[in-house]
Automatic annotation (TrEMBL):
Protein name, entry field: Coproporphyrin III ferrochelatase
Catalytic activity: Fe-coproporphyrin III + 2 H(+) = coproporphyrin III + Fe(2+)
Gene: cpfC
Keyword Ubl conjugation belongs to the record: no
Record-stated family: Belongs to the ferrochelatase family.
GO-annotated cellular components: cytoplasm
Alphabetical list of HAMAP family matching this protein: Ferrochelatase
UniProt subcellular location: Cytoplasm
Enzyme class: lyase
Source organism: Glaciihabitans tibetensis
């Protein structure tokens, strides 16, 4: 069982009482980079998908349907290679700034697992870890499930009460995350213009991973009253507005969703990107700038759902389409992640923390009940107030 010190389980003393923002300096020992994980060969695909869907009773035939996305790329998800590159880029940035913080890396669903990174921390004598989850927005799968994974890792290693884990804030509106998308949209619109399409003929599609409507409604603290789409939808819409304002374009835009995986009987966020493209083309749109706003790097969902399926839809419609890059290891993104670490290392006052929307800066310590999974209920989680 995860040990609670103060109100926040497994937290450093500065975060243990549950402040919205920790404005006290903390001498962390290491950074814990955490991600989704992905298979690195054909034999890994089904075991990986079983990990992802564990406890949900997904039949093997459905797993095989999803598996063909991975098999089309040799059974290799790009995500692990991308995280190795990000880890190296973070280490280089830290060295350039003269910051002595090792970077450990662990995944939720495939090796190296978070529990292995926590065990490594213990072996190296580290007791205070600051986690970075490679997901910018608030929802069960993009925030709370990471926090549950930290709790599981401490329990699995028997290190609850020995190692403390805090987490940087969700960074959806941090300049380091948003700047690469601004650059990408400006270039994408230029590409459409060079191909002969006017702003009025071009539609910017901000795409993110669809999630169950019940999860969306529970994303973020209930006290903020974000509405049916919760903080998840509100954050994406706010960031898209920032990007379009910075691009200084008259082109129309909308938020769309992708990668739905639930049964037809369960409502998920809509519209699907391909459905939206067909409707827009019928209304006169001739060019699409596709922005993977919900992704920090070229995950399988980007390579398959956008680079494969959405591009096939554009070809079917006879429309021009260009996909904007994800942040990846863009210098602004890498630098921004280290800035987020330094917020906690230095105890930066909230008023001095950058946020490009009125929704932020987001919380250092997740609020009580934030990002509930209605189907699974509350499980132990670190870096937030219970439950």
């Amino acid at each position: 069982m995860t040990i609670t010190n103060g109100l926040v389980a497994g937290a450093t003393p500065a975060a243990a009482s549950g402040p919205e923002h920790v404005e006290e300096a903390v001498a962390y020992d290491a950074i814990l980079l955490t991600s989704f994980g992905g298979p690195e060969g054909q034999d890994d695909v089904i075991p990986f998908l079983r990990n992802v869907t564990g406890g949900r009773g997904i039949p093997e035939e459905r797993l095989e349907e999803v598996a063909h996305h991975y098999r089309a790329f040799g059974g290799i998800s790009p995500i692990n290679a991308q995280n190795r590159a990000l880890k190296a880029a973070l280490e280089e940035e830290l060295a350039q700034r003269g910051i002595d913080l090792p970077v450990l890396w662990g995944n939720r669903n495939w090796a190296p697992y978070t529990r292995e990174a926590v065990a490594e921390a213990h072996e190296r004598g580290f007791t205070k870890l600051l986690a970075i989850g490679t997901s910018a927005y608030s929802s069960y799968s993009s925030c709370r499930q990471y926090r549950e994974d930290y709790a599981n890792a401490l329990d699995a290693t028997g290190l609850a009460g020995v190692i403390q884990i805090d987490k940087v804030r969700q960074f959806f509106d941090h300049p380091g995350f948003v700047t690469p998308f601004i650059d990408g949209v400006i270039q994408g619109l230029a590409d459409a213009a060079a191909a002969g399409f006017t702003p009025a003929e071009t539609h910017v599609l901000f795409s993110t991973h669809s999630i169950p409507s019940t999860d969306a409604a529970k994303s973020g603290p209930a006290s903020r009253n974000f509405g049916p789409g919760g903080a998840y939808e509100a954050q994406h819409l706010a960031v898209a507005e920032v990007v379009m304002d910075a691009a200084e374009t008259a082109a129309p835009w909308s938020l769309v969703y992708q990668s739905r995986s639930g049964p037809p009987s369960m409502p998920w966020l809509e519209p699907d990107i391909s459905d939206a493209m067909r409707d827009l083309a019928a209304a006169g749109t001739k060019a699409f700038v596709i922005v993977p706003l919900g992704f920090v790097s070229d995950h399988m969902e980007v390579k398959w759902d956008l680079d494969t399926e959405a591009m096939e839809t554009a070809e079917e419609l006879g429309a021009f389409a260009v996909r904007v890059p994800t942040p990846g290891i863009h210098p602004a993104y890498v630098s921004g992640l280290i800035d987020l670490v330094l917020e906690r290392v230095q105890g930066t006052p909230t008023a001095e923390r950058p946020a490009l929307t009125d929704l932020g800066p987001w919380y250092d310590v997740c609020r009580s009940g934030c990002c509930e999974n209605v189907r699974l209920g509350f499980k132990p989680a670190l870096a937030g107030l219970a439950p």
